[in-house]
Amino acid sequence: MNNIPANTVFIGHHRLNLPSCHSTNDECALLLQQGKAFEGTLISTDHQTAGRGQRGNQWESAANQNLTFSVVLLPTFLRADEQFLLSMAVAVGVREGLARLDHPALDPAALSVKWPNDIYYQDQKLGGLLLENTVRQVSLQHTIAGIGLNVNQANFAVAKATSLFLLTGTAWDREEVLQSVVQGVERQYLQLRNGQRDTLRAHYLRHLYRYQEVHRFRETDGRTFAGEVVGVSPQGHLVIREETQLRRFGMKEIEFLD
């Protein structure tokens, strides 16, 4: 897995693949500190031993089975309070890349973005993202977008996880999946850089998990309630209608219940 992704403008043109590492995000951060990373630098690994997910969770990934990689972006065109737009672009791009994979058992309509940054197939987790931003004054300076996708793993400790292999019964070429996903991420990022924010928001909502559906949630104090997902605020808060009240929740303030 050392090829430069085909048909990209800049992502992956500077690429490193490591047999094993603790975290590809950490490896990108080290290159940035050393002045050796550029926009589009991509670091992938065959075995990530200490990958991080949202909420500080560890990302489970079997060696040589999945995709774990990080991309360096320089979104200086975004203010610090607009950083969720970048999360949207990366999530929509990953979903788009997966939707372009050609297999009769894969239904693109079943792929969704579960707020804030998980990739779902129907009601099972297929992947996750972790964006780490550095801010200078009022603007984003650089972002490390970590992406983990379950490709050929057959067994998971968590019940709601799945993989392309489990969904299709086919062993996938991880490089083929990477190429498609990277192209999708770059396409969405360039559109965001070109100012197509409304298009991005519409695309994100169109593929938002449980959008305009009533679901059960649990707050940090243990209270559960039923509400309708009606959107995401510009700051990245999930907006839920509970009866007649609109409520906004940050990433660590609420969780979906089965």
UniProtKB/TrEMBL annotation:
CDD domains reported in the protein's UniProt record: BPL
GO molecular function terms attached to this record: biotin--[biotin carboxyl-carrier protein] ligase activity
Leader sequence segment: none
Top-rank taxon, per record: Bacteria
Name the record gives this protein: BirA family transcriptional regulator, biotin operon repressor / biotin-[acetyl-CoA-carboxylase] ligase
Keyword Ligase included in the entry's annotation: yes
PROSITE patterns (UniProt xref): BPL_LPL_CATALYTIC (PS51733)
Keywords assigned: Ligase
Domain BPL/LPL catalytic: residue ranges: 2-193
Keyword field contains Cytoplasm: no
InterPro entries: aa-tRNA-synth_II/BPL/LPL, Biotin_CoA_COase_ligase, BPL_LPL_catalytic
A Pfam match: BPL_LplA_LipB
Upper classification of the organism: Bacteria, Pseudomonadati, Bacteroidota, Cytophagia, Cytophagales
Record SUPFAM superfamilies: Class II aaRS and biotin synthetases
Gene Ontology CC entries for this record: cytoplasm
